[in-house]
Structure formats: C-alpha cells, structure tokens
Fold this protein.
Amino acid sequence: MSDHEYVPKSKFGKWFNDRLPLLSLASHLTDYPTPKNLNYWWTFGGILTFCLIIQIVTGLTLAMHYIAHADLAFESVEHIMRDVNYGWLIRYVHANGASMFFLAVYIHIFRSLFYGSYKSPREIIWIIGIIIYLLMMAAAFMGYVLPWGQMSFWGATVITNIFSAIPFVGEGIVTWLWGGYSVGDPTLTRFFTLHYLIPFLILGLVVLHIWALHIPGNNNPIGIDVKKPSKDTVPFHPYIVIKDGFALLMFTIVFAFFVFYSPNILGHADNYIEANPMVTPAHIVPEWYLLPFYAILRSVPDKLMGVIAMLSAIFVLAALPWLDTSKIRSAVFRPLYKQFYWILVADVLILGYVGAMPAEGVYLLIARVATAYYFIHFLIILPVLGSKEKTIPLPLSITEPVLESSLNSPIIKKKESLN
Amino acid sequence: MPEKKIKRREFLYTTSYAVGAVGVGAVVWPLIDQMNPDASVKALASTEVDISLVQPGKAITVLWRGKPVFIKRRTPEEIDEARKVKMEDLKDPQKDEDRAKDPEWLVMLGVCTHLGCVPLNDKGDYNGWFCPCHGSHYDTSGRIRKGPAPTNMEIPKYEFINSNTIRIG
C-alpha cells in the first residue's frame, strides 16, 4: 500500500510523523484503494459508525439527567421528557437510534451473506462483526431496562431467567446477576454501569473490524479479488466518502421520520407504566430486532433446549465461513444459493412476525417450521451446495464486465474452459 | 549438572504460576462476589402476612424478597381436584399433600418456573394458573401440567404463627 512511501511535506509534520505516524495513518485511510464497483449496500459500514457515535453522544447526555435507582428511574425519565431542555429530543434520538442501529446492522449482515464477504480471507472481520452484534444486543437489552417501565422489568426478568436453564449452577448465576432474589434495584444499577461500558467495547472492536478489513481490502459485488489496483480500484477519498455521505443523508431522513413523526411506534405502551413486580403484562414481547430469536426460543417446548436453540441460532453464524463450502463468494454467480438466500431472508422475516404473535395454534406451528428451516439452511443446505451447485463463470477482473464488449470472444472461451 | 538446572527452573516456573494463579483468584473473587445479594437484601428474608380476610376460593398476592407469593384459600372441590390427580399424569410428580401442609391453604411463589413471569389465577386448562408469557398451565396445586415450564411452582418455607398469620421465609 502507498502509505509506506508517505512523507509529510512540512518539517514539523515530518518531525511528528517520525515519532507518532498519525499522518501516515490518515494518508492510508484517504488513499485506501477501494473496488470501484461497490454498490450502495456497501455504505452501511459508514452508517453504522455514525449510529454508534450518535448513541454514545446522546447516551452521555442522557446519563447527565438519568438516575439509576428503582424508586427514581421511571420519574427521572419523565423528568428528561418534560423538564430537561431538548430532553425529549435526545431521548427519542437515543431510543429510535437503537432501532436504526439494528436496521443498519441487519442490512450490513445480509449484504455480507449475499456477496459472501465472510469467506476467506475475511473470516476474522466476520467473527469480530458477530461479537459486535452480540454486544449490541446486550447493550440494547440493558438499555431497555433503564426506564424501569413494565416492559423493562418483565423483559429483564424473562431474559435473565434464561440463565436459570443451565443445569445445577443456573439458579446461582441468576441470583448473582440480579444481586437479589428478583430483578430489583441492584440489577438496575449494574445494568446501567454495563450499558455505559459496552458502547466503548464496541468502539474498540469497530477499530479491529476496520483494521482487519484493511488487510485484504473490501469484497465487492462480483466477489473476485482486485487484479490490477490501478484499474480495479478508486481511492477511498473522495469517491467512497462522497458515496457514503450521500447514503448517510438518505438514512438520516428515515431516522428523522421516526424521531419526529412516530417516536413511539417501535416501542410498547406498557413501558409507560412503572415497573410492578406483582403484575406481568398480558403480552410480553421484546423489541422488534430480537423477535426472530425470541420466536426460536418459544418454538421449542423444552426450557433448556429452547435456550440452546436460541443461542445456537447466533453462534451458527460465527461458523458460517466454514459451513459455506463454496469457493465462489458472490451470489451473482451462484444461481441456487441466490434462491436459498432469499428463502432465508423470508424465513427470518417470518420468524420475526411469529415472534411478535402469541405462542399458540398456527403461529407456534409456523415458528417451528421456520426455526427448523433456519438451521437446515446453515447446517445442511450450505455445506451441500458448495459441491453440488453449478456456478456461472466468473469474469477475469472487476473491470472486465464493464469493458466486455471490447474484449474478443477467445478470451472468454478460454476463461470458461478454466472453470 | 545441566539436567539438574532444568529441573530447578521448571520447579520455579510451576510454583510461580501456581502462586500467581492463587493471587489472581484472590483479587478477582471480591470483584465477582460483590454482585451477589448484599447484607441488606438478605436481611429482608422473612415477612408476616395476615390471612384472616381471605375468603374460600380467593387468593392474595404478597411480596416476599421482591417476588410475588400466592396465598390461596382453596375450596373443597379444588382440594379434591388436586388430590385426585394420578402421579403419572404429572410432568414434575409431587403429591398435593406435600405441597399444602393445611389443605385449605396453598402458599407458593407466584413465579412461573419457565422464565419468571407471574401466572394468572383461575385461568388455564386445569382451573389453576396460566402464565401469559409463554403459555404454561398449572393445576389447583400449582403443578405444571402443560407448556414449557419444567417444574411445579415453588413452595417457600413458611409456617402458621397462629390461625390468622403466616410467616414466609
């Protein structure tokens, strides 16, 4: 990469850069060669960084007014909404920001699934991403507990009770998590502490995620390696910066729509009732972004097995680079995988839908079929597809499809025989 | 001579690591144990309840250690129903006689053993309790009959101080 030759122009710059090569890093980031065929699905990395920063900034400001105590938390949130200058705005941005963060991360993950971005040599980027996703879920769950409404309290009760499924030590672990014999003040205080900590852990992992990305460079829509950097790539700045910036602008329009026009549509009315340990709301549902996993948990009639199925649904993703045995990255050249990909998308959406419905009758049946299919996709279809699928021949380079008309047919013939 | 030296070094490595591990453990344990219930939480371990106003067939809910406790005054029919059940029909076999010292009074933790919600009284397929969260059905003895919950609702330690008062815990 070009940053090795980078020499600052000014004398002071050179003096500084010899001692701490920050200018070399900046030069690497601006010149970073990016495949020129990246489409808008690649802009969500930047959007996610934006979401993280928004959550940290609004979270810090909310923490200046919030009180993490079981008797005061609910009131302090209402105090933020009614008395604190722009408190309503900051809280609505933070609450909807969590949903926007997950919206963006799901698009980011499904982009990776479509274009095979998790495959060699990008396995570590993918696994760091899965860890970030797990931390996001932990942060979102604990953040949802902080307003100390009915959904906060009972959501916390149900989720922490998942650990009680562990044989022998489960009950002890749950008591330890609670700091008592039920969810209460000690639980709230520690959840606040951890909710404050996790975003900074995520920030550190994002740095590793990007560092690991900059070793092999970006994947791209046709999923083949960059052959000639001068022809196949463009520098990150200004090309990708402008494209990411435009996508971010579009994204913030959606974000602003939720914040200003329907700030509570993604929440639950029950959470505006203060936590009451004596009464469980009639219908407990987690936030929308956790619904598919909730559906998997409920579709298994046994407590421990339900918990194992739910956790496996996430951990199976970490093994994906080895479960998908096909060497071809992009679904563009995998006609069968492309169809199974869209079935999986539908399957996850169905799981999300039945996760929000009561666990009985036809919904339970659908949830069971969809849960089974989810695991069949990753554990059976993907490993088998790698050897059985007849793939479409790959282009020779990123530039080739663009210049295809100028290429003579013998080259294409030759390429096909190689495959 | 050289052989002896290596043995001495290995001994030093092993003992250093062992002492280091014990030291790390001793330092980490307070940081973990601080999260367990503290002395003020443990001090609230028992509560006394006046049951003189509870009518037959009705139940009251009291808070003990932050958890709801159901105190149900059962009707003869409900007791009958609970005692007639065959053990092989139960997921977590337990006699009603072992759950209610005084058959008229059922005292149990109002916490679903699935994921901790509070079940609703007089609901479900077995005329006992029904958990709205994930659909567990309990009978008139609070035993699990249908649904994802693995065990019967728990019976806390309690005693009758006199005919009108129960001490839980």
Notes: Strands of chain A lie at 33-35, 233-235. Residues 406-419 of chain A have pLDDT under 50 and may be disordered.
